[in-house]
Amino acid sequence: MMSNETPEHDLSASDAPSAEGKPEAVLALEARLAEMSDAYLRAKAEAENARRRADEDVAKARKFAVEGFAEAMLPVLDSLEAAIARPDATPEQMLEGVHATRRQLVQALERNKVVEINPAPAAKFDPHQHQAISAVPLPDGSEQGPNTIVAVLQKGYLIADRVLRPALVTVSAPR
């Protein structure tokens, strides 16, 4: 026969009331709760500190992101200032200095992953790297196909595989 009444439990030694009037099992659970609460608060504080440090690192990275690029540009600036300081330079000396300064600038850009987009004539037009300014009809007998580059009006540049500025080009029109 089944009864709806709950069976009575015998009080074991662990359920015996302590000096405070609480069973030892309850005291053990309260101690465990206090321990877990402390561990939770410590973990929460550590997570907050890690988030704060990460935010500070991101802020520093943004603030000093151009530091390497600026350092690479300083020799170019020095060369330009040296050229200005020589008003008695001959046109040949000035031209030689301009070429040397341009080489410095190109090297500084390449060190900072800025790469030139300068497509060859007859290369396939790529809308991701090129901007068509106009389309021109090709003369009869031309082997160049439609949508190919006829001329580069202005070079473009990539920075770490992202287009900084597309190359401005003239393309061949469909026949």
Report on this model:
The protein is built from three helices and six strands. It has 175 residues and is α+β, with helices and mostly antiparallel strands. The radius of gyration is 37 Å and the shape is elongated. The protein has helices at residues 24-63, 67-84, 91-111, and strands at 114-117, 130-136, 149-154, 156-159, 162-165, 167-172. Helix content is 45%, strand content 18%. The longest helix has 40 residues, at 24-63. It has a three-stranded antiparallel sheet with strand order 1-4-5. A three-stranded mixed sheet has the order 2-6-3, with no helix packed on it. A hairpin with a 2-residue loop joins strand 4 (156-159) and strand 5 (162-165). The mean pLDDT is 88. Helix 2 (67-84) runs antiparallel to helix 3 (91-111).
- Average per-residue pLDDT, rounded, comes to 88
What share of the residues lie within helices?
40-55%
Order of helices and strands: HHHEEEEEE
* Biggest sheet overview: 3 strands, antiparallel
- Trace the largest sheet across and list its strands: 1-4-5
Number of strands: 6
Strand content: 15-25%
Low-confidence stretches: none
What Rg is obtained from the alpha carbons, in whole angstroms?
37 Å
Would you tell me the structural class of the helices and strands? alpha+beta
Query: Which overall shape is indicated by the principal axes computed on the Cα atoms?
Result: elongated
How many helices?
A: 3
What distance separates the N and C termini? 98 Å
